[in-house]
Specification:
This protein is α+β, with helices and mostly antiparallel strands and 294 residues long. Helices cover 61% and strands 10% of the residues. Helix 2 packs parallel to helix 5, helix 3 packs antiparallel against helix 4 and helix 7 packs antiparallel against helix 8.
Length: 294
């Protein structure tokens, strides 16, 4: 069921929205009650909300205005990213951002922490937030925020990769938290962000490059057409000879993302049940290779 969901455009969007629900719930149920801060643009929105309430005396009632601020700040970022990241990715990201902002604003944050141990709350919140954000990215979308800026910088050839940009920005954000609040707030916020990033990296598969070799005695043309038409990848193949049988065999070579490999394996087994396939993850690829974000 999960396989079919991740390879159907409509269902992938549904799963991405579900991921935003999980991420928003993790933040509101475990992190907000302890007055901790997430990273990135959402962390800035939380910080602005706190400063407005504590220093300007502005009351926002039962709703957390940080979610609304997050959506409003994402709109100009997505408009600027439209040209670099493409219409499909921007539209999906806008939907996911709106969903996250809505869930974050509506899910009530308990007045008394569900888990009053800071480290345990950071662990539980980080795991759930990482799972939710990982689902969003795996489905070819994004929750918005500064990741979009990092993607644009990366695609333009800047020295700032997504990870470096996020790390640099969060360093500034948590330094501000260190001076504005207690050291515990800054430290445990960093711990929460670390747990989230660890789980997110384990779930996100689109940026892991894989080289696949397919050995088949069947119709290599059908496999080539599937790779080109359905996956949008090119393929190179040559003729080989099985040393044991002495029979001719077709060898196809393709480079793709780890997310796409599941669809390739499914197609290979459907077209030729007797074929076998080998993969090598973490392949370094240089030159004309499209790294997809959606």
């Amino acid at each position: 069921m999960l396989y079919n969901s991740l390879h159907h455009r409509g269902l992938r969007l549904v799963v991405a929205v579900l991921g935003e629900l999980i991420a928003a719930a993790a933040l509101n149920l475990f992190i907000v009650p302890l007055n901790l801060y997430t990273g990135g643009l959402m962390g800035v929105c939380q910080l602005l909300r706190t400063l407005a309430a504590d220093y300007l005396g502005i009351s926002f009632g039962a709703y957390d205005v940080a979610g609304i601020l997050y959506f409003l700040l994402n709109v100009p970022i997505l408009l600027l990213a439209y040209k670099n990241l493409g219409r499909a990715f921007v539209v999906k990201t806008l939907i996911c951002t709106a969903a996250f902002s809505l869930f974050y604003s509506l899910i009530p944050s308990p007045s008394v922490p569900i888990v009053d141990d800071y480290l345990t709350a950071c662990l539980l919140g980080g795991i759930l937030a990482g799972v939710g954000s990982g689902l969003v990215l795996t489905c070819g979308a994004s929750g918005g925020g500064l990741d979009i800026v990092g993607l644009c910088l990366s695609k333009r050839g800047s020295q700032f990769t997504v990870g470096k940009f996020s790390l640099s920005f969060n360093a500034v954000l948590y330094t501000a938290c260190l001076f504005l609040f207690s050291p515990e707030v800054a430290i445990y916020s960093v711990i929460y962000n670390f747990f989230t990033a660890m789980v997110l990296d384990r779930m996100h598969q689109q940026n892991v490059s894989v080289q696949a070799l397919i050995f088949t005695k069947g119709d290599e043309g059908a496999l080539s057409r599937f790779i080109i038409e359905k996956l949008g990848r090119s393929v190179t193949y040559w003729e080989g000879v099985g040393a044991y049988t002495g029979k001719d065999i077709h060898v196809l070579c393709v480079c793709l993302s780890k997310f796409e490999i599941e669809e390739l394996v499914h197609a290979v087994h459907s077209i030729d049940p007797h074929a076998f396939l080998t993969t090598q993850e973490g392949t370094r690829i240089y030159g004309n290779f499209q790294r997809k974000v959606g």
